[in-house]
Amino acid sequence: MQALTNRSKVVSNKQMTFAEKMYLPAILGGISITIRHLFKKKATVSYPEVKREFSQVYRGQHVLKRDDKGAERCTACGLCAVSCPAEAITMTSAERKKGEENLYREEKYASTYEINMLRCIFCGLCEEACPKEAIFLTDRMVPTDFTRNEFVYGKDKLVEKTDDRVDVTKRQTKAVLDFKKIKQLSHNR
Amino acid sequence: MAKVTIDGIEVEVPDGTSILNAARQIGGDVVPPAMCYYSSLKESGGKCRVCLVKVTQGSAKDPRPMPKLVASCRTNVMDGMVVQNITSPEVLEARKGVVEFLLLNHPLDCPICDQAGECDLQNLAYEHGAAKTRYEEDRRTFEKIDIGDKIKLHMTRCILCYRCTFVADQLTDNRVHGVLNRGDHSEISTHIEKAIDNDFSGNMIDVCPVGALTDKTFRFKSRVWFTKPMDAHRDCPKCSGKVVLWMKGEEVLRVSARKDQYNEVKEFICNECRYDHKDVKDWTVEGPRHIERSSVISQNHYEKIDLLKLKKEVERQLEFQKGKPLPEHNHSLNA
Question: How far apart are CA B231 and CA B267, in angstroms?
Answer without folding.
Answer: 13
